[in-house]
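Record 1 of the preview.
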Amino acid sequence: MTEVQINAEAPQSGNGFRAEMRRARRVMIAARWPVFAVLFLLVAAIAATLGGLLAPFDPNRQNLMLRLADPMSVGPDGGLFLLGSDALGRDVFSRLLYGARVSLTVGFAAIAVGGSIGITAGLLSGYFGGWLDDAIMRLGDIQLAFPFILLAIMFLVVLGSGVWNLILVLGIGQWVTYARIVRADTLSLREKEFVEAARAMGDSTLSIIFRTILPNILAPLTVIASFNVASVILSEAALSFLGLGVPPDVPTWGSMLAESRDTLVANKWWLAIFPGLAIMLTVLSFNILGDWLRDFLDPRLRERT
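->
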């Protein structure tokens, strides 16, 4: 009898998942803008993953004979500079492709670091309360008292430039947001009936925290993560613009903007426009996707869709 019931429930679970996917597709198409955001992010992901294969030139190859070439210029060897070249004769299009890899890698990795720290701290703070709650929240208040960009500059000056140092610094800068939201949700869930039932069944504390409470607060965390990826990409671009992000031989969108400052007066517009557009469209796409996820995961709007 039990086996029959379990087998009967499996298709329902599968049908429920497929129904959610159909609803997500229907709501996204109806909203329109999230479709364009997802398509652009897919293009950016392909550029980041296959940049080495798609780039027509080595992004660090210099040729002063071809410096500041206009977009669609053809070099003596027949190579096409699709988006022109910079002041050192490096291909802008190739550097944009490699810059996508750095921006997306730093964005997602920093969110993974900050989210892991913040979620764990928020769960422990909300579940146990007391002195542990006070200590974690006061530590978060101290961090929020400092302007983040100044804090990041200070740490990067001490640690040195590098992708992993940048990920660590930006990740640490994001944990407070996750910790506060997770703490608030944990405080409201720890006395619920299903948590009390888990305690009565003898589940360990870690099992209750990470297997009973955590799955019930993932929806708002997904929305926050989508917005935070955008803010991390902006922070990475700002730090790279200041020369504190990654080493100079690693092309990034922020460093490309910094290098374009001296040529703007010469009307070499493509050196700033293309990396600026890449940053703007990527951040805008993540923000649009975050707005859509917030509406899609809101239970108050579920019946309308």
